[in-house]
Write a structure and sequence with these properties.
By secondary structure, the chain is α+β, with helices and mostly antiparallel strands. It contains eight helices and 16 strands. It has a seven-stranded mixed beta sheet with strand order 3-2-1-4-5-6-7. A five-stranded antiparallel beta sheet has the order 15-14-9-8-16. A hairpin with a 6-residue loop joins β8 and β9. The mean pLDDT is about 95.
Length: about 325
Amino acid sequence: MRLLMLATGPFAVPTFRELYNTHHMVLALVTSPQRPQPGKPPAPSSPLREIAYQHGTPIFEPEDINSPEAQARLLSYQADLLVVCDYGQILSAETLATARFGGINLHASLLPKYRGAAPINWAIYHGERQTGVSVIHMTPRVDAGPCVAQAVTDIGPEETAPELEKRLAEMGAWLVRRVLDSFEAGRLEALPQDPAKATRAPRLKKTDGLIDWSRPAEAIRNQVRAMEPWPRTYTFWRREKGPPLRLIFGPVDVVATEAQAEPGTVIQAEADRLVIAAGQGAVAPRCIQPSGKRMMSIDEFLRGYKVRPGDRFGPE
């Protein structure tokens, strides 16, 4: 089959690379244009672009994939199928129709759960034990097309969003290749998604990293794992002297405690141990990064910052 790869982000790299291990023809890489930042050196070439360069594959960089000009360019390739992954633009019905069989999309969740831009982060945030990848036959509605293949995996208890993303990207490459083989052989089955089971995974905001100390300790631990590498998980130390200090948390441990303390209250602060009350249980961060500083181990942090039992952490 004649394929067009529509991709921009790193999640698509294994899939794009795998296309060259098939007998299918990769006509072009369609990707978001690189925008120079004023006063900054040009951004390095992306891994996707490097793969295209290595294989002599043309690169098409439309500002708006749904513009008449972009659609005319897509039509000129006479593609059989659009392979879409981590692209960043929503394709209209007219754009999907520029390929003979429309498009397939690789998504990092078990659809219909976690439709949207950040499925990996929100799956970890909500404490899911399993997730996976889905390939759908695309419709203009975001992540809503019929599902043609899925693969499931467990989420490790310590696994962060970047770690899980790397594993799912490799799983997805294998799944897309299997779908292409089935597509060509006419063995593809498409199962409609149940809209009643759909959940959202919206794009992350900076405020999604702010800790709500009334939540259970386990939920806060999941938040720390989910909000890597951005926006990170943070709180503010309300010091007796000076303005509140923003603290970014590294990995945290869940601590069982019988101490009666308001959520966000420091229960213990000594040597290499900092324990903070949550809505249920408590958390003990392994490392902390004060605003404007590097990440520090807890013993190093407590030597430089005089946190005491009874101090409060919370919003600014």
